[in-house]
Task: structure prediction
Amino acid sequence: FFFRGTNQSKEETSTMCKATSTADSQLRSNAKPQCSGSKKSEKNWSSTKLVIKSYAFLPFQIALLLVLLTIAAPILFVFLVCHDLIMFALVGKTYLYNMSWEDPAIDQRVFNLKDDDHVITIASAGDNVLDYLIEGAEVTAVDFNICQIALTEIKIACIEHLPFEEFFRIFAQNDIELLRERYATVLRGSLRKEVQDMWDAQLPYLKSFMYSGSSGFLAKLLVKVIIPLCGLSFIEDAVRRRMPKKEFLELVNKYHLQVKAVAWISDKVLLAAMCLFAGVPKRQLDLTNRKTPLGDVLTHIFYNTDLTNDNYFYGGYLLGEFTETCCPRYLMKEHYPALQKAVAKKRLHLVHGTFVEACNQAKGRPFTVSSLLDHMDWMPIPMISAELALLTSKMDLKRGRIFWRSFSDTVHSPPLMWLNAKKVDDHDDKVGMYFSTWISHTKDVDFEALDRVDRLAVQNKGLLSQLKTGVKIVTFPMLQSFYKMSAANNSKSKHGKAMEAFYAHQKEDYDSFRENMLHGRPWLMHSFPIKKEGKMVWVDVGGGTARNLEFMPKDVVREKFSKIVILDISPSLLEMAKARVESMGLSDIVELVEEDFTNEAAFKKLPAKGSVDVVTMSYSLSMIPDKEMAIKHAS
Result:
């Protein structure tokens, strides 16, 4: 019984009742109302009895789950440690997503797509791509996993060559035999070579689209094992019978212990494994500070969506197929002519590669919508910065919209912050797997996403030079008295003398040596906001050798900045900065200031208060004793 929850037929219920103990029969007899004709009372008693029996079996369920989890512990540990390694090993061998895990209803609401729109997006399983085509937009879809491209392309081929009834049987009802027949006779010839190779290898073994791919495997594990073990099979039964939401929530509340058990197991035990097969990399997983992220998702699905009637994302997994009344729009008959028309007009362009490669290949009309799904969660700051720089250069600056979802509750990366994005109302999102949704209108953005230069201009002087500089740093505490005497130092402060003594004998190799250690500096410079209007004033505190200048192309520096001040306490490092500034031809813009930033006297040599746009401290704050004063002066 605890494997099936409330999902019994009348015959099963009758058999179960006959097998109950005498005490249970007596309890049923005593509790049954005198009015035998009351169907409502019979129903209430049935629900109550099921809950009582469910609680009775709860200890056995917990015991069995603990045994299974103990057996699976080594595998779960490997998933935790090798999360990204395993996930990216699947790329190119299978598709991760058997359906697109973004609710297109939210997209429709904020995009308001027209025939003259051009959308660039991630292909994923192709579901949302097809939804955009229904709206009439031109679409460029990109994915670096050829298997995701293959899944999208075979849907396009079916739309082009098959009637709706066959299309529905294949992708809604998992009629794989029909797909094999049509693939051999009609579809294969219309696919590109690499897509043919993928389906030639995988189609013979495909059993169901709904449970295919890594996310489909995860769904099958949850639906066929975890949910039944926790006594929640009533969910599948409710979806199958299209139970009214109010009645369904009453059942959820009655089975709250089992629901909590599933949430706890998901969050505390299976989180890494589930996210791995769901195609969620560790970087994205680390973005949330919620204690029970999957528990929150479960709550959202039950209470904020109509799971039993129109949430095809989870309904499809629970039933193993889509139905005519609960399916994505591309599987609805009334939208099939629009899809056929869009495919005939070649309104979809599929690109196997990265988003950057898709932008570089883009020709013709600029993009009016960039639907980034959640892939900004996957990337570090420099990659986001580089992608946005290229993307915005290809967009319609008057009509452009940049749209993304995130596992974070806030805008998680500085390059995204400068887009002046607004939070989208997604309370009714059927997926519920993202904790925030954002849209930016390019016409409302005051900052410009411009490319940065990550390559160090200074040549590496070789291993011997590196070792020599390393020895100087390591031996400084013992030889600092000698260094202080030999350094030409006019600093008035004790700290200034110490800093000059430390840097004077390593200035020539300072940049090449520290480039291998200061990995956060590119992140800082890729986070640097640049105003569209230009005329910016930048003060680089502890800017040393002016290395930060090289992160921006010279023409960008000259176009966007009216004044740059590099302040440092070490004259030796500023000597190197002077040579760099002159070699870049920026002496008319860049001013070098030798001063202790914590001294009030520094302000006499700096731009007027209130006139500075950006103050940066690239690892210099850690070298300043009075950090509070440094922050105060910066602000």
